[in-house]
C-alpha cells in the first residue's frame, strides 16, 4: 500500500494479481472531478469502480426516469418516507453544488463517461441507498426517527452558505454521515450502517469483481471518508465477498409487536365505545364525536400545513377517524390519492424536483414533494390524534 503525494488522497492496494487504486473524492468538489479526469486520461486502468448503487447509476444514465415515477404506487407501497428522505439527501447535495457551480457527483459522471467512451467496464460497488436508509432507521430507536427526518429537512432548507474549505473537509467524512451528523446527538448508531457497513460492502464488491473478471488495474472513485475503512477491509478481510454482500444486503426483520399496536389501539377504542354506550347512549355518542373531532381535526391540520387542496383537507378530516380504526389503510394514503387527483403532478414538477427541494418554499410549490408532505403530515396528524383521542376516551370513562 502506498500513499500518493497528489492533492487528492490516493492509495494503491494489491488484491491477488490485481491492483486497486482508491481515489478519495468530495462529491461536490471540482478538484476531485479534475483529478478523476487526469488519472483516467493516462489510460492505465482497465476498469473503473464508482461509489454508486444500481438505482443511483440508472438515475445518472436516465435522468428523466423520475418523470415516469408513479407517485401513487410509491405511496401505496409504503415508500413515501423513503422517497422523501432520498429527495432531502439529494437536495442537500444539490444545495452544496449550486454554491460552487459544479454538478453533484461530477467525479462519478466523469468516470462513467470516460469508461463508456473507452468501452471499459463500470463497477457499481456501493449498496443500494434504500437498503442503507432502512438499516439506518433500524439502528435508531423509533422515537428518534421523526427527529432524524426533521433534522434532515432542516439541513436541506438551511440558508447558511458553506465555504469551499468546508466542502473539501468532507474528505474527512462522508456526505451521508455529514448530513445526518448535523443534528444527530450520538453518531455511533448512524456510523455503522452509513459508513462502516458500506466500507465492508464496497471492499467486498471490489474483491468480487477483480476475482470474477481478472481486472488488472482498477480505479475506484470513492468518497475519501471511506478510504481507510475500505483499505483496511481489503487488506485484512478473509471473508468470502459473497457472504459479506449477502449479510449487508439483508434487511432486518421487523419486530412483530409494533404491527400489533394499531390493532390493539383499534380494539381498545371500540371497547371504549362499547363501555360508553353501555353506560348511556349519550356518553357513547359523546365519545364517538370526540374521537372524530380530535382525530379528524389533527389529520386535516396536517394536510392544511402541507398546503393540500381544500378537498384534500376535508378528506383528511373524514378519513382519519375511520382509517385509524382500520390498520390496513392509513389516512395519508387516502389524502395523497385525493391530492394527486386534484393536483396531478406535471412533467415539469418531476424535472424541477431536485432544485425545488433545496428550499422550503420549493417543497410546497412542487406538486410532487407537496403530495409527499400531504401524505406525511396528514399521517402524523392522524397518529397524534389517535393517541390524544384514545386518552380522552379513557379519561371520560374513568372520570
Key descriptive features of the protein:
399 residues, alpha/beta, 20 helices, 2 domains, 6-stranded mixed β-sheet
What's the structural blueprint in terms of helices and strands?
Layout: E1 2-3, E2 10-15, E3 18-25, H1 30-40, E4 47-50, H2 54-61, H3 71-76, H4 80-99, H5 106-117, E5 122-124, H6 129-139, H7 145-157, H8 164-168, H9 175-181, H10 188-213, E6 217-223, H11 227-236, H12 241-249, H13 256-279, H14 281-305, H15 310-323, H16 331-342, H17 347-351, H18 353-356, H19 360-365, H20 367-398
Parallel strand pairs: 3-6, 4-5, 4-6
Antiparallel strand pairs: 1-2, 2-3
Helix pairs in contact: 1-5, 4-7, 4-20, 6-10, 9-10, 10-11, 10-12, 13-14, 13-20, 14-15, 14-20, 15-16, 16-20
Describe the protein's architecture and organization:
The protein is an alpha/beta fold. It folds into 2 domains: 2-249, no CATH class; 256-398, no CATH class. It has 20 helices and 6 strands. A 6-stranded mixed β-sheet has the order 1-2-3-6-4-5, with helices on both faces. β2 (10-15) and β3 form a beta hairpin. The radius of gyration is 25 Å and the shape is elongated. The N and C termini lie far apart (73 Å). Residues 1-6 and 181-185 have low confidence and may be disordered.
